[in-house]
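Subject: Macro domain-containing protein structure
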Amino acid sequence: MTSGGRLPARRIAHCVGPRYAEKYATAAEHALVHCYVSALTKAVDECKARTVACTPACDEKKGYPSDSAAMVMVRTIRRFLEKWSGKLDCVVVCANAAEMDDYRAALSVFFPRNDEERKLSEEALKDKPGYNEYGEMILDERRLRIAGRLSSASDFTGGMNKTMGVSLDDSDATVVPAETGLTVSRDTRDVEDEQTRRANLLRRAESMDVSDVSDAKAIYLEKSRDYIGRRVVVVIAAFLERLIKSGEEQRLLAHVAKELRGVTDNPRGYVIVYHHTGGVYGAPPSLDFIRKLHVALGPQHRDTLKTVFVVHATAILKAAIWTMDMLQLESRLCNKVEYVETVCDLRDYVRLEGINEKLEIPAHVEEYERDLARNAQTSFW
């Protein structure tokens, strides 16, 4: 695992693929799948990377056909993204010029961009075997078959009874058919209640003048998208505390509902940049306010939120987030938190789509970093 450098990815995943022989093609394919799954898992779990680049694990020296290797790689990436949705925001496929056509063809099969490519994808995969959640080929001869139902409990226990000297009547045993499944129905009342409250909040917001709250820049939308095309929501703790203390909580929530309408339900997703610098208490907003903020953001925002970049987090804030996660109060939110030490790191994580575009940083945040640098220099001497 190496740094992404100038690629639009935080990490580059490298792995060594298997040698290829026609006789053992299936084994080589399974080994190659595991190479990519292991590399992507390491990038997500150990490196905490939201963006990663993948390089081909096999080349002509190992005898692996380029077109087959490309299909395996792209298929595995597709299955990984489906299984671990929300773990990665972007996967960059790297290949040399000689292999590029093969990888473009594979991408059009597993990531069709239009109706024409979708039809070609269906045609290409029509006669192919099924694939499991990791992208491995499912072969009928390797399937484990379980009988739908035992004829009686004695079929299962007869041999054991003779050996152990234990008698068991059929009436005492319960045999569960193998095909029995469980269906879990999700109660949608909470979601519907949240939708109703947000609709009411939006109606009230339309009749409110919240221009002064908007000018306070406590929560606002960055003008440019990031390089993946996601919107960037900026939250400034110092200004947020000031508004809440002055009794402007309801107007602030109305501003959020209006400002971010259509942003949080976009399937492309969005990220939050939380500048904790300058907060008086060093702690996050109250749980009550966070839950009201959930309503203002809309019922889908938990799924479309990709990452919360917390800048200059204090020990108190980290402890509070850890506690909320342990108590499962806001686990889905806490699991998406990424701590950022400096503004330079933040701009590296959240790159805007324009070449010369940079995140707007509050003046007090930049001043805080300058003070830290001066103090570090003084303590050194």
